[in-house]
Structures are given as C-alpha cells and as structure tokens.
Amino acid sequence: MAREAVLRVDAGRAVVVRRSPSLISKLRRDWVLLMLMLPGVAHLIVFVYLPNLGNIIAFQNYLPFLGFSSQFVGFDNFTQLFASAAFWQAVRNTLVISAMQLVLYFPAPIILALMLNSLVSPAARRIIQSIVYLPHFISWVIIVALFQQIFGGAGVVDHLFRAANLPAPDVTSSPPWFKWLVTFQVIWKETGWGTIIYLAALLAIDAELYEAAAVDGAGPWRRLWNITLPGIVGVTILLLILRLGNILSAGFEQILLQRNAVGPDAGEILDTYVYFQGIAAGQYAMAAAAGLIKAVVGLGLILGANRLARTFGQPGLIG
Amino acid sequence: MSQLARPPWMERPSRAPLTAKVVIFTMILVGVIYPFVSIIATSLASQKDVDEGGGMVLVPLHPSLEAYLSIFQGSVITRALLVSVSITAVGTLLSLAVTTGLAYGLSRPVVGRRPLLMLALLSLLFQPGIIPSYLVVKQLGLLNTYASLIVPVALNAFNLVVMRQFFMDIPQELIDSAKIDGAGELHILFRIVLPLSGAVLAVVALLYAVFYWNAFFQALLYLQDSAMWPLQLVLRQYVIQGSPLPGVTAYSAPGGSPPPTQSIQMAVVVVATLPILLVYPFLQKYFTKGVLTGAIKG
Questions:
Q1: CA A204, A208, A214 angle in degrees (round to 5)?
Q2: Which A residues 190-229 touch B at CB under 8 Å?
Q3: ipTM of the predicted structure?
Q4: Handedness of CA A160, A163, A165, A169 (dihedral sign)
C-alpha cells in the first residue's frame, strides 16, 4: 500500500521535472541544501554586508543612543578628518610600512621558494618546509613578546652589546627603529608560509622543459631565467595585485600590540587610528570615515591593479 | 637518496654554491628554531641562568619547574587557559559546520547558486571595518559575551573557497550514482563527500583552531570584563605590557629562591604556544599536498 503511494509520487515528480521546474518546486527540491547553506549565508549578511551598510554613520553626527538614525551631516566627518594632523601621520606611517614590506618582504618567499625548489633531495626539502611554515601559526602576541625578550631593553642583543662595551640599541621601544622592527617581524613570521603558493606553481612546471633545455646546452642560470621564472610570473602578479589592494593595511594586530611602546608619531597606522579614535576615544563617526576611506581606496586599487594586469596579458584576479 | 632524485641531465653542483646553500639554510633554520628553544629554556631557568644568559637562556644549568608552579597557583592563567580552550573547541566546531554547509551547497547545482556564490566571493573584497562591526555586535547585544569571540568571525571566506574547490573536484559520477540509488542530500554529504574530504577538513579545522587560539583583538574589542579574557590577552597584558599578574606570587621551594620574572613570563608564553607545537607535526603534511593552493587556481 505505502509502496504504491511512493511510486506514484515519484512518477508524478518525473513529469514535473520534464516540464522545467518552477521556482517553488526548485526550492522544494533543494530545501535540504538551502538549509545547510543558511547559517553561512546569514553570517555573510549580518557580519559582512550589514557592517558595510553601517558605514553610513561616516556621514552622520553619530550618537550612540540615537544609533543609525543619527543626523546626516554630509561630508563633515571627512572634512574634519582631512584637517587632522594625526590622521595624515597615520596615513604616512601606513604607506611607509607597506612600501618597506613590498620591497623587503614581498620578494623573500619567492627567493626562499626558488632555493627550496633547487634542493634535489625531497626529504631535505620536506623537513625544511615544515620548519619554516611554523612561525605562521604563532600568534602576534607571542611573537611580539619574543622580540621584546631578544631585542628589548633587557634582552639578549642588549646583553651582547653590553658585554662588548658598546651602547646597546633599544630596538623594541625606539621610534626610529619601529618600522624596521615590524618589517623584520613580518619577514620572520610569514616568509616560510608565503612560499607555499610559489612552490605549487613551480611544481606545475613541466619537468621535460628542463631536460630539453639542458640537452640543448642551457646551464642552471639560463634554465632559471627562461623556464622557472616565467613559470611563476602569473602567481607573482596575482599576489602583487592583492598586496597593492592592501596597501593601506600594514598589519593591524601586530602594530596594535607595539604602538604604545613607541607612541603614535612613529607607530600609528590607519587601522590603529580607527581603533583608538573610534573605540577608545568614542569618535565613532570620524573613525568610521577613516575606515571607509581605507576600504574604498583599497577596493579601487585592487580593481585598478587587476585591470592593469589584464592589459599586460596576465590572467589577473577576477575573470 | 639525493643521487637517486637527481635527473641524469642535471649538472653536479660545484662546491662553492653548494656550501653557500647549506650555510644559508642552516642560518634560516637556526633563526626559526632558536626563539622556540630559548623560550622553553628560559621558562625552566633560575635567576642565575637568566643573569648569565642576558634575558634569554639557551641551556638552563639549574632547571626548575617553579615558574610553572607559580603561574598555575593563581587562578588568572588557569582561567584564561580554560576560556581559550573552550573558545577554540566550540569555535572550530561551529566554523567547520557553517563553512562545510555553505561550501557544499555552493558546490552543487542548487537553486540560486550564482548570486549566493557572488555574495560569498565579494565578501573577500568588502571586509567590514572595525567601527561598523563593533556597532553590529553591540546592536545584537553580544558585547561582553563569549559568543562575541566566535559568532562574528565564524565564517572565513578564504576557507570557504578552499573547501568548495575541494568538493567541486570530487567526481560527479559518485554523487550521480548515489542519487540514482535514492540517496538524499544529507546522505550524500555525510556518507560520500565528507569521508573523501579528510584532508581539506583537517586543514580548514586547523586554520580555524589556530585563528581562535591566537585571536586577541575580538576579546580586546568586545569584552570589558578582564575576568573573561582568553590567554592571548592575558599574555599581552602581562608579558608585553609588563603588568603584574593578579594572584600570582612567585612560587619557591622551601629554602630556594623564587623564579625570575622572565622565567614566569616565558612559562606563560610556553603554555600559549604548546598546543600549536603539539598539533602542528600531525597536520603539516597536509600543507605540502596542495590542498590550499588548489583553490587559488580555481
């Protein structure tokens, strides 16, 4: 009895499917999948897109008890921001640190990946890889604590300098050293992990190319220049686009932890400016304006860099 | 081994570049490993070791566990450790469930897949700012709750993309034949897709777990009550800013001298690092398998 009923329903459904299903029947067909997706979609809407809409307070005289229905003031917050020396100092610091990372950090994983790739023994390569990936998983809090212990006022470097009767540089709390310090920290933490994507690209290069080149008399450097490097150009450009899009981010958590040791003149970046202005000083609207500028400039840069890459015949990021 | 791996056409390297390579790799490895050895050694060191070693010790000549006894005497570290472990466990499970659900749906020909996929991918470009995120969490009444450390960051779009790409690479025939046999979507997910996805589940779980374990900013932003702080935030307060730990008095054995401040600080650092050092060896093998990079090409 029950079996017959099921058969009849199945048969009825088969007819409907052939008639190109309506939206309702598609929803009914996929409801299990849709329920599985619901928490993720809800999360994206509430914690990604809703906050993006919340940027509206950058154009308001935001008062916490009025919330999002505060009075509109147009671009007043931006005018105030542009008149603030602290804001421009933060922009300058961000750009300098980003530029230093671009010059000093960005090539580091490429060089390390090429060196790893030149290792013939797979065992040695695997061991080195798993060791150099490790710092990526250590928190910034711990890394900053480590650097303080090694380079700080009572640390190892200080001790060595003193043992040699030399004036010790207090690297972790002196403003002129700050930008070098944070750049070096990024190199220590992320160079190993950064090789992953380059190693994957290197692995994808056809080994027969190397053999053919060697047979034709190309030496190791020639092969590097004509086979290896062209093989990683695409991925390098892709990562460069992403880095350019993030040029106004210079490592928020890392710098938030160390900004107070050197003061805002040397240590404030845009993100920490937003945090201290907004959360600590309660200037929500002005801080949101600064955050919005950062987001819009970043989006513009990433789209611009992407277009540029495609003009030069590279696949780019989107499309 | 290395003779076997070298293809016949490749020149034997001459001595000078080979030596240079060995020297450079040795320096890199020492540079990575030294701090880890040093924090463990310092955490075990006595005042005399610390004075001689200049802050960081490599070999503690008079090792003792007093620093560890000191930090677990007070309730601050114990409590923070418990908070961090719970947040990491609950957060990782929740994130894994949410990410798997969305990634699986987006890998199937589901109704509305294209707009939902755009919604997910564009979230990579529209990262929300600090202030509006804070206001949303505040409006939802999540301020000063443990949920604020998990719910707002439960889904990471990068992990989503990695997982979806992995699901897309599972042969469609497997799913089709299960469908013909009358399997429902849940059955396909739990009996066919997930058992084949161990590698990506392990990697994504590790990335989430490390994120939750290492996070301090959400706690700084959303928790006003310092009694609720996770370990990383306590570490920041105590080690980086040098504030004294309430309730912690240096423990010393009868007749012995108390452990130096640096040992106690490094003991906290070791406690905060150890879980990562312990799980890492079991999971690092997945990273060399290209699980992460597969998605980037897609």
A1: 120
A2: 192, 196-197, 200, 203, 207, 210-211, 214-215, 219-220
A3: 0.88
A4: positive
- Cβ distance of A120 and B2 shorter than 8 Å: yes
Q: Which residue has the tokens 């023994």?
A: A121
A52 alpha-carbon distance from chain centroid: 18
Residues in chain B with CB shorter than 8 Å from the CB of A118 are 21
Whether B294 is covered by a domain: the verdict is no
Q: Does residue B296 lie within any of the structural domains?
A: no
Vertex A145, ends A142 and A147: CA angle to 5°? Answer: 110
Domains of chain A, by residue range, sit at 2-72, 76-311
Residue B279 sits at the chain A interface (C-beta within 8 Å)? no
Q: Quote the domain boundaries for residue B26.
A: 2-73+247-287
Alpha helix (H) ranges present in chain A?
2-18, 23-29, 31-44, 50-54, 76-82, 85-100, 107-117, 122-133, 140-151, 156-163, 175-203, 207-215, 220-223, 229-245, 252-262, 264-267, 270-275, 284-311
pTM: 0.88
- Are B149 and B188 found together in one domain? yes
CB contact under 8 A, A295 and B127: yes
**Optimal mutation site among A3, A9, A10, A41, interface B, most CBs of chain B within 10 A:** A41
pLDDT in tens, B74-130: 788 899 999 999 999 999 999 999 999 999 999 998 888 999 999 999 998 888 889
**CA A96 to chain CA mean position, Å:** 17
- Please give, rounded to a whole number of angstroms, the shortest distance from the CA of B180 to a CA of chain A: 12
CATH code linked to domain A76-311: 1.10.3720.10
